[in-house]
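Colleagues,

For the teaching module next term, I've prepared a clean inverse folding example: a structure given as tokens, and then the sequence designed for it. I'd like students to try predicting residues themselves before seeing the answer, so please don't circulate the second half yet.
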């Protein structure tokens, strides 16, 4: 493991990427996104571990388990972004610098997607750049960890 390890968390329904509403989320599969993240991590000389779950508690557990293992988290919490106090509290509780990402621009979509429970406890949010949101999120997190943390 490199000196800087990052956990990438994908929330519910993101396992369907590639076929799920491609006009909204693009045609890149989750495997494709993880592959691009690994390539970028290699370029940045960091390590990424990617995990997808459709279950809120699994995401909470993964955040807890990141303590002492990972220096930062990139999370696309999917629909839990708009509903989960538990994920927000987990991020706040562990205090690991976290970047929130979304494929779509959640502010250009339905009203119920405009609120993120997670936004107040993360360093920042990247929303609307398709699969590139993850790459931008990783770059922003690594820069933050190397310069400000
Ligand atoms: C999403 C946006 C959410 O509103 C939605 O529920 C998702 C994906 C995105 O990446 O654009 O599942 O997080």
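(Answer key — instructors only)
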């Amino acid at each position: 493991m490199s000196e800087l390890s990052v956990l990438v968390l994908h929330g519910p329904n993101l396992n369907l990427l590639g076929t799920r509403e491609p006009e909204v989320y693009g045609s890149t599969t989750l495997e494709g996104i993880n592959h691009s993240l690994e390539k970028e991590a290699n370029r940045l000389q960091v390590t990424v571990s990617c995990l997808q779950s459709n279950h809120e508690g699994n995401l909470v557990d993964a955040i807890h388990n990141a303590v002492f293992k990972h220096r930062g988290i990139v999370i696309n919490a999917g629909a839990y972004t708009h509903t989960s106090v538990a994920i927000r509290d987990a991020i706040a509780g562990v205090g690991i610098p976290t970047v929130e990402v979304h494929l779509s621009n959640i502010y250009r979509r339905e009203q119920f997607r405009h609120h993120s429970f997670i936004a107040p406890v993360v360093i920042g949010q990247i929303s609307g750049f398709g699969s590139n949101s993850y790459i931008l999120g990783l770059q922003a997190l690594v820069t933050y960890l190397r310069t400000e943390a």
